[in-house]
Design goal:
By secondary structure, the chain is mostly beta strands. Helix content is about 5%, strand content about 40%. The strands form two sheets. Strands 1, 2, 3, 4, 6, 7, 8, 9, 10 and 12 form a ten-stranded antiparallel beta sheet that branches. The chain has a two-stranded antiparallel ribbon with strand order 5-11.
């Protein structure tokens, strides 16, 4: 079940759900607006021009209040908000219609696992023929929350837990056994 504004406010007030910083106007009827942070990540070109999923991908990190996203360009960005979900709640990341109508595609794989904590890394793509100016603090998307039928037996403790800033892919770690996996 998708959570309503009243339920979201109650969960925020009792500390069960954490979103910071947060202004009252960000809580919508069935979601919370998320804003663009000031950190961007761009995949660095390798000498071969090929990204390999089993090798570390290097990113150039840029901190800026303003970023010009060129036509056809892809960039990672972070949210201003640090989110902390309880073990019985998930969230969906959705773009705002008014942003999508500009040709700005926003994604983060669309899903935030129960137990996740951190800033959300967004993947932004400019499908327009014009550059799009991105500004820190601008409402860029929304989180839609839903309760699980039961608390997750294995809440998220993965490779992106606690992330801050635009965090690049860590897919190369998929095959490695970590202490958290034992």
């Amino acid at each position: 079940m998708v959570l309503s504004d009243g339920t979201i406010r109650s969960l925020l007030q009792n500390g069960e759900l954490g979103i910071s910083p947060l202004t009252p106007g960000q809580v919508q009827p069935a979601s919370v607006d998320i804003r663009l942070g000031d950190t961007y990540g761009i995949v660095e070109d390798g000498s071969e021009g090929v990204l390999r999923l089993d090798q570390r991908i290097h990113y150039k990190t840029i901190r800026a209040e303003r970023y010009l996203l060129l036509p056809g360009q892809f960039v990672l960005a972070s949210t201003m908000e640090y989110v902390k979900l309880p073990g019985d709640m998930t969230a969906f990341v959705e773009g705002r219609s008014s942003v999508g109508r500009l040709g700005l595609f926003i994604q983060n794989a669309g899903w935030v696992d129960p137990g996740f904590e951190g800033e959300i890394t967004l993947e932004l793509f400019n499908a327009n023929r014009c550059a799009i100016e991105l500004r820190a603090g601008r409402r860029i998307g929304q989180l839609v929350f839903a309760r699980l039928d039961a608390r997750a037996q294995n809440a998220y403790r993965g490779k992106y837990q606690g992330q801050r800033g635009a965090t690049g892919s860590r897919i190369f770690l998929d095959g490695e056994l970590r202490l958290d996996d034992i």
